[in-house]
Amino acid sequence: MKFQFWSIGKNNETYVDEGIKGFTKRIGNYYPAEWKIIAPPKNAGVMSAEELKLKEGELILQALKKEDYLILLDERGKMLSSEGLAAVLQQRANESTKQIVFLIGGAFGVSEEVMQRADFKWSLSALVFPHQLVRLMLSEQIYRACTINRNEKYHHV
């Protein structure tokens, strides 16, 4: 199984980049993992929120493969404990999922088409966070889930 982390927006600021790279490298001890930062469409500043979501959605849907398992990070998604996330990942591994794509949508969320394409909708919190911090938290939580599934000491209960 392989992990792809996709996020719409600008590249990481230095204050989060080191942490994201560190956790992504650690995840690589369990599964191949890489980040794809998707630049917002040209003229994004003059588009309505709905137009922007549609354009971003087209980019996402074109890049997805039919067999990709899409986990959409969305504030209306299901909240999971760290152990619950570990169980989701283990289930995907048990079902021989080739690739999981974790998607952090744009500033206004994602289009209805992307929402419908998502295999699982996951909420990190009822709070709203800056996208760059979500990237850091996502990478840390995936690493944590990997250590839980291997019964390693990183996660303390």
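The record above closes out task 2.4. Task 2.5 opens with a second protein, given below.
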Amino acid sequence: MLEAAALAREKGREDLLSWSARTAIDARSYPNGAHFCEVEIDPETGVTRVVKYTVVDDFGNLINPMLAEGQVHGGVVQGLGQALTEHTVYDEDGQLLTATFMDYAMPRAKDAPWIAFDVEPVPSTGNPMGMKGCGEAGTVGSMAAVSNAVQDALWDKGIRQADMPFTPHRVWQMLAHEAIAAE
């Protein structure tokens, strides 16, 4: 590529070095999807595990379905990490205590279940290729799915509001607080 550009300059072909185009999109396209999550919570430790996860998305026409699936899987795991393990902690003076990966939990492969993925494409009418975006679909859907699953799992224990992150300590505190309130 660089050789071709140098050759074009040598031959005085500046017209080959710059290219631009403009396109007006009359309408917008929006992806749609649904995330389903099942969790198990150990009441003794507060450890919350995602045991089953399913995603069904509509990204319109896909050029590379494997790439889209990989992007969704990565986003789901990122969202699972934010919902279940990541917790930023500061001391009373505002000093960040979780400033390294030794102190700040990130999701690992063992933290994620197999993620079932399927698409139900409805081509977009807003662009000639019928495509829709998929960049944040995994992250956005996973945090809501995990939060709803955890809230559902804790509901019978009397917990009416469970907020992220669902670290083992925080879930254990919610369960312990509710047990004390019930006595």
